[in-house]
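Notes from the 1:1 (GR / supervisor)

We went over the backlog. Supervisor wanted to see one worked example end to end before approving the batch request, so GR pasted a single chain during the call. The sequence is below; no edits were made to it. Supervisor asked that the structure be written out right there so they could see what the output format looks like.
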Amino acid sequence: MSAKILDGKILSHKIKIEIKIEAADFEKKTGRKAGLAVILAGNDAASAVYVKNKITACAETGVQSFEIKFNENVSESALIDEIERLNNDKNVDGILVQLPLPCHINEDAVLNKISYKKDVDGFSSVNAGNLMLGNPSLRPCTPSGVMELIKDSKADIAGKVAVIVGRSNTVGKPLMMMLLEKNATVIICHSKTKDLGNFTKMADILVVAAGKKHLITGNMLKDNAIVIDVGINSVDGKLYGDVDYYSSLKSAGFITPVPGGVGPMTIAMLLKNVLKAAQKYS
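Structure output shown during the call:
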């Protein structure tokens, strides 16, 4: 048996086509494009690449982008002032602050100034609370992308055992709620979990977001499991996932590659959130 590949590049392309159609319809109805403002502070090379990819994706789908750059010495108050300005800008439907911020800035203090109506990362307490309660909200992009990849496998999530390795506020916790909404039985594992393999072997659906190269190997999988690898680890100039891809191919039923799996889906879900915010709040 060899796992089928859940290709995030192909799926994200399909979703972007849908977004482009909706974005054109929004522009026709309102006389303006849906808009995303991206704030980049500092000189982090990886962050600059991520921002470039998001700006490119906006251009591909008919979403207007506003790129705001600050040097590494920018003050916290200057960033907050800019966010307040963007909160009041009717041409901006979504605001994204690229992380990490320079070390002298309190990330939470900055992110909490973004209006929940423009919080296209889905991290605000209002949006997180609505997700917890099962209410409509702007939802975190990476977990949303994971759910789309699982959907693409055509698997029925209801009644399945879903194991998430990682408990972050950005992936693990919100993904837990999304899976519960679909009636999965969810187990959360983390750095303090003993005998991790005992849990991963139970998983019909395994999502790994731990940030550790090849934490999961093929002998830790249940046969025919859906394996979603959120991790991306740079080692000696090469990128690796949290899952040992090649040793897992024989055991898994479906698996995502790294890169080319969850990453493209995160950007697609970001654009979907921008359009959703534009349609709902503008």
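Supervisor's comment: The two ends are 50 Å apart (CA to CA).
Batch request approved.
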